[in-house]
């Protein structure tokens, strides 16, 4: 029997036959236009004047009730950030203030502004995750995760979390004008029980839900082995609506449907 630890208090027992078998790839021949409708669940934009009034209302409420919060980019007076969270909260001022307050406090406590290439270089050198140099064919920044290089027992989880946030910030900095979302590609080829880390997976999705809402447009799980199935069955309910962004696909589908020969990520080149 193999022991699969997916969180501190939970162990799954898997027979060797299951661990060695492969999870059949479930192809989903949806077109990207369908995904856009599914994942872009913002309400229609309000009239600019109405939007402006709501932004000012949130800004004033944050200043009055949370004056100690930082100001400037990604602070309580960042009108672009305020508008984004208003859209996420369906233009509810109170809900936007609540979620913004949580996000701004987290950014300060996590020291997001101090994350640099140098600060995460040691864990980045493992090659477990990176931002691809090129956009996909839909003009989205690409966050690559190579699951077989992630060893939770050997690496400090705090370092992994800092790398995650640094790469999300880096990907967002590559957004072209008019684009609002990135794509995450999780390469599961070679994945084994020693790479399983449910805690980190839920951290990743929590980061997107609470602090970078609606910035993740699609998640590709590539060539998932059968041993990944029980992990996904546990994780899926925890991810709630974000689970609908996941597509299981093959490496060949990634090559053909998301990139050209010239801009393939390194680990998908023949």
TrEMBL record:
Q: Which SUPFAM superfamilies match?
A: CRAL/TRIO domain, CRAL/TRIO N-terminal domain
**Domain called CRAL-TRIO: residue spans:** 119-270
InterPro entries, alphabetized? CRAL-TRIO_dom, CRAL-TRIO_dom_sf, CRAL/TRIO_N_dom_sf
Q: Which superkingdom does the taxonomy of this entry point to?
A: Eukaryota
Per the record, a Pfam family?
CRAL_TRIO
Q: Which PANTHER family match?
A: SEC14P-LIKE PHOSPHATIDYLINOSITOL TRANSFER FAMILY PROTEIN
Protein name (record) = CRAL-TRIO domain-containing protein
What is the species listed in this Swiss-Prot or TrEMBL entry? Arachis hypogaea (Peanut)
């Amino acid at each position: 029997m193999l022991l699969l630890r997916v969180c501190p208090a939970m162990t799954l027992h898997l027979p060797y036959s299951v661990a060695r078998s492969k999870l059949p790839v479930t192809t989903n021949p949806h077109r990207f236009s369908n995904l856009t409708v599914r994942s872009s669940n913002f309400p229609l934009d309000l009239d600019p004047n109405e939007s402006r009034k709501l932004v000012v209302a949130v800004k004033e409420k944050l200043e009055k009730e949370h004056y100690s919060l930082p100001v400037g980019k990604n602070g309580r007076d960042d009108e672009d950030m305020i508008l984004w969270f208003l859209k996420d909260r369906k233009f509810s001022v109170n809900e936007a203030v609540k979620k913004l307050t949580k996000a701004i406090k987290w950014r300060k406590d996590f020291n997001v502004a101090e994350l640099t290439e140098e600060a995460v270089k040691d864990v980045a050198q493992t090659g477990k995750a990176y931002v691809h140099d090129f956009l996909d064919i839909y003009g989205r920044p690409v966050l690559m995760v190579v699951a077989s290089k992630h060893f939770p027992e050997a690496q400090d989880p705090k370092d992994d979390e800092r790398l995650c946030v640094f790469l999300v910030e880096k990907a967002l900095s590559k957004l072209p004008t008019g684009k609002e979302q990135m794509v995450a590609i999780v390469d599961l080829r070679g994945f084994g029980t020693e790479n399983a880390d449910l805690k980190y997976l839920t951290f990743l999705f929590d980061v997107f839900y609470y602090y970078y809402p609606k910035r993740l447009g699609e998640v590709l799980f590539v060539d998932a082995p059968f041993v990944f199935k029980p992990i996904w069955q546990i994780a899926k309910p925890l991810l709630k609506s974000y689970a609908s962004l996941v597509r299981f696909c093959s490496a060949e589908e990634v090559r053909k449907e998301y990139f050209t020969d010239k801009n393939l990520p390194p680990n998908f080149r023949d």
